[in-house]
């Protein structure tokens, strides 16, 4: 059974633990990827940016879960960086890249959605 959870929220530091709490039925990797994609919005578009977070897929051992984070800026595209041990940032998308089977970006005229898919 596929389920869809959808949250309309403002990208703030407090939103990350709240999102993890709402996704408590899902595994650690799903919660981590969702909060990393949310944190990217905070870091690159600014605190208070309105976002929609969707998690599609059941919290079961079999199948896939898709995480989507949609924000209102189609131009600010995520970039996979190679952070060094001394860097204080730049690891979020690298974590998503390491945990997800695949990830990408869908652009619209007034928004973008960064998504990833994980095997449960």
TrEMBL record:
InterPro entries hit by this protein: Anti-sigma-factor_SerPK, HATPase_C_sf, HATPase_dom
CDD domains: HATPase_RsbW-like (cd16936)
GO molecular function terms attached to this record: ATP binding
Stretches assigned to the Histidine kinase/HSP90-like ATPase domain: 29-115
Keyword Cytoplasm attributed: no
Keyword Kinase: yes
PANTHER family, per database record: ANTI-SIGMA-F FACTOR RSBW, ANTI-SIGMA-F FACTOR RSBW-RELATED
UniProt protein name: ATP-binding protein
Native organism taxonomy: Bacteria, Bacillati, Actinomycetota, Actinomycetes, Kitasatosporales
């Amino acid at each position: 059974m596929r389920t869809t959870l959808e949250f309309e929220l403002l990208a703030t530091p407090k939103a990350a633990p709240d999102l993890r709490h709402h996704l408590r039925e899902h595994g650690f990797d799903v919660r981590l990827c969702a909060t990393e994609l949310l944190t990217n919005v905070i870091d690159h578009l600014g605190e208070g940016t309105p976002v929609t977070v969707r998690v599609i897929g059941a919290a079961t051992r079999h199948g896939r879960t898709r995480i989507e984070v949609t924000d209102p800026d189609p131009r600010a595209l995520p970039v996979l960086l190679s952070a060094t041990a001394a860097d204080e940032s730049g690891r979020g998308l690298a974590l998503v890249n390491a945990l997800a089977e695949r990830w990408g970006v869908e652009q619209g005229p007034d928004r973008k959605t960064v998504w990833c898919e994980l095997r449960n």
